[in-house]
Specification:
Number of helices: 12
Distance between the termini: 66 Å
Low-confidence stretches: 1-18, 260-272
Strand content: under 5%
Largest sheet: 2 strands, antiparallel
Number of domains: 1
């Protein structure tokens, strides 16, 4: 029996790497992180100092779930690197449609919220709040392209169009601007765990959007040639922290708005962590989880692995030949 016939008759289980079952752990850990994070914010967070109370069980559980998920993301990416390949990209599902539609609506709502917040700060002439308000508004304006990118991602064909690439990159830039704006927002101390959790969540969303842009940059007929390790890593992190921190933070804010529980509503002042922005990260995390769980992979054969290593070695040698340090100096000396 030929190798090609063996590959064609391989069982369906061979389309996935040995560690594929672990991918389900990312959304599961994300849900656990969300519950613990919301509980820690409701019960154990001291607004006057910007930290959780000493010995907070829910905070330590949330941190543990985040660390475990991050280590799993690194491990799975390392395991699949050079050993697997895409068979096809995930097609839109009802779950990804829900995440995309929710994210698009929240992007528009976030723009309106930041526009009103900027006008209020401008009318009050509050110089301390005006600078972050400007940056958050700029992030929300650019974030309208994120809404377009999330809608375009629901079409398997339009994901590879140039306008999808531009919208995705601008959406990633809007998250980057929001991360920068947070440094000028002093409603939460710079060393607060809440700020650190939010920054990690934003970084995971940013990486996921860059991974989506990487797919949009690749032609549809050659996308299976992309190494899947980076997509698994970014999708895993975004599913973990988008659902965990975004969902948990939004849940806590929603509970506060409905005055659910005395401990939730009596603590002041309030940090500038709007539920809309956190819910937007949750929506992107849902899309990442759907992408992750529906990724179709196959194991590379020994010949394919050897061929990839040979090509990588040739590319490395070509890059070295393009520029040799001191080569230009020696030529100029010979000409003189």
């Amino acid at each position: 029996m030929s190798d090609s016939h063996r590959h064609a008759s391989a069982p369906a289980s061979d389309k996935r790497p040995a560690g594929f079952a672990l991918l389900l752990s990312f959304p599961v850990l994300g849900v656990l992180l969300a519950v613990c994070y919301a509980a820690a914010m409701a019960r154990d967070f001291e607004f006057d100092i910007g930290h959780f109370v000493r010995g907070s069980v829910f905070f330590h559980l949330a941190a543990a779930f985040g660390v475990i998920g991050a280590l799993l993301a690194v491990g799975i990416a390392a395991f699949t690197a050079g050993r697997t390949a895409f068979t096809e990209l995930p097609r839109p599902t009802p779950l990804s449609v829900f995440g995309g539609a929710l994210g698009a609506i929240l992007s528009v709502a976030l723009f309106m919220q930041n526009l009103l917040g900027y006008r209020a700060a401008l009318a009050a002439e509050e110089t301390e709040s005006l600078s972050p308000a400007k940056l958050f508004l700029a992030s929300a304006v650019i974030g309208l392209f994120l809404a377009a990118a999330l809608i375009l991602s629901l079409s398997a064909e339009r994901r590879h169009r140039w306008y999808a690439l531009i919208c995705t990159l601008l959406g990633a830039f809007s998250v980057n601007v929001a991360m920068f704006a947070a440094y000028f927002d002093f409603t939460v101390p710079l060393n607060s765990p809440v700020r650190n959790f939010t920054t990690v969540c934003q970084a995971s969303v940013l990486l996921f959007l860059l991974g989506e842009a990487r797919i949009s940059l690749t032609a549809e007929d050659t996308v299976t040639e992309l190494p899947p390790a980076f997509q698994l890593f970014t999708s895993g992190l975004c599913a973990l922290f988008g659902i965990g921190v975004g969902g948990g933070g939004a849940l806590w804010q929603i509970l506060r708005s409905f005055s659910f529980g005395s401990e939730i509503v009596t603590k002041t002042p309030e940090p500038n962590l709007p539920a809309i922005r956190l819910a937007l990260y949750f929506a992107v995390g849902v899309i990442a989880a759907d992408r992750l769980l529906r990724t179709s992979l196959r194991r590379l054969t020994a010949d394919e692995i050897a061929e990839n290593k040979r090509k990588a070695k040739e590319e490395k040698e070509k890059s070295k030949k393009k520029y040799v340090p001191g080569d230009g100096d020696s030529k100029s000396n010979n000409n003189s």
